[in-house]
Design goal:
Elements (H helix, E strand, L loop, with lengths): L1 H47 L14 H18 L5 H5 L1 H5 L1 H10 L4
């Protein structure tokens, strides 16, 4: 009697394990589909219409480039006289979003 009980428990645990593994794979595929494949499809559609921009990386898009350009802009502002500079008040978009300014220079006004 105990042997049948042990077999049923091992069968149950293996079927539960298979179910959890299947569920995990399905969730991973959906996450991949909606986070990466959809973004690539949109990027290609925009590029085919002539709207180009920086290509995103897999995990964080363009965040690393945005951080780098923001850090460079802060260093340049610090060298030119700090944050209270008059040029910042005249062109605040360039000071707040230096990556957009750089991308517009590189890719055109559609970015």
């Amino acid at each position: 009697m105990e042997g049948a009980f042990v077999e049923s428990i091992s069968l149950l645990s293996s079927s539960s394990l298979f179910f959890l593994l299947s569920l995990t794979l399905i969730l991973f595929f959906l996450l991949f589909k909606f986070s990466w494949l959809r973004a690539r499809k949109i990027y290609r559609a925009l590029k085919s219409q002539g709207i180009v921009g920086p290509p995103p990386s897999f995990y964080n898009g363009n965040l690393s480039e945005m951080r780098r350009l923001t850090k460079e802009a802060k260093m340049i502002r610090a060298q030119l006289g700090g944050d209270g500079d008059q040029s910042m008040t005249q062109d605040y978009a360039k000071a707040l979003f230096p990556y957009l300014h750089q991308w517009r220079k590189t890719y055109g006004m559609f970015v």
